[in-house]
Design goal:
CATH architecture of the largest domain: 2-Layer Sandwich
Strand order of the largest sheet: 1-5-6-12-11-10-7-9-8
Shape: elongated
Strand content: 15-25%
Order of helices and strands: HEEHEEHEEHEHHHHEHHEEEEHEHEEE
CATH topology of the largest domain: BirA Bifunctional Protein, domain 2
CATH superfamily of the largest domain: Bira Bifunctional Protein, Domain 2
Oligomer: single chain
Helix content: 25-40%
Largest sheet: 9 strands, mixed
Length: about 375
Amino acid sequence: MNWLLPEHLADALPAEAARIERLRRTLLDVFRVHGYEFVIPPLLEYLESLLTGSGQDLKLRTFKLVDQLSGRTLGVRADMTPQVARIDAHLLNRNGVVRLCYCDSVLHTLPASLHGTREPIQLGAELYGYAGLEGDREIIRLLATVLDTAGVPATRIDLSHFGIFTALAEAARLSGDRAEEVFSLLQGKDVPGLAAAVQGLPAEIGAALQALPNLYGGREVLDEAARILPDLPAVAAALADLRTLADTLPGLPLSFDLADLRGYHYHNGVVFAVYTAGVPSAVAHGGRYDGVGSAFGRARPATGFSLDLRELARHAPTAPQAGAILAPYAGDDAGLAAAVAALRRSGETVIELLPGETAVEGVAFDRRIARVNDSWILEPISKD
């Protein structure tokens, strides 16, 4: 059965592929008009480059193989963000703000969910070289614009801040495996597991960590967090950042979830997850990851987002498309060939019947080129 594909991998057949490609072109144009330059990193890199710094969380998700030329271990990218960070830090080497975008396939060893794919089409944007909250604001607004343009508007943008967990972990002197365990329990909102994991920590810190999973909702959550979390400068600064974003992003459906964290070895500031109507899981993730370029010789402030274009296309409304045009075989008829060429230059889909071909399956024709007297004209195809 040579036609079978590995589990959680699938072909994109013509209708789906057309939807994905139309959406890709449209969204890359959104990035372009906002000043984001398009880059295309390679599918394969040396493994240590893919897993350096921000890529540490990708170890289990990355396919590995041996390079027949160098003998070194290569990785098939599971996330393009570390690659784009390398491009900014090492290849472009610009001093000011750099805006980059990308769109291509990545490969995962395991699917993210039961019905997920192992080959998402990752589309994203990254902003380098600006540490202020205005950079986070630009990225969040850009993501909202991208989703609006796709016809999948955000119904909830959950904001959080990695600095809160970092401050609590440092106050409790949590490190290594134990810190990662607590972080994982917070991610899963495993309240009983969290209660067990914080045993032995200072009472105030343990109570604060246990409170985080319940700190979600509207802006009032920030006031509640300020009331019950320890009076640590980093916690106060993180809550102030979230308040500032709430003030400067009017019109967006912001909410707050202080346990909605990801990227333990990656994010270090504001993080966010975006949801849309009718979809139970987040359609996009992002956040700040300052210093990621240090592994490539130049630490830079950074923030960005990414999403799975293939999944987004499934939820996007299907835009009506003009039907194709059916044309007879032109052969050496210069007039017909010129008419077909002119229609194609204008963006029309024209299919010429080959000699002996009487029908084309799978294509919706609504017009045809017909000869009337000595001229070739375009006429509608009757649906009767």
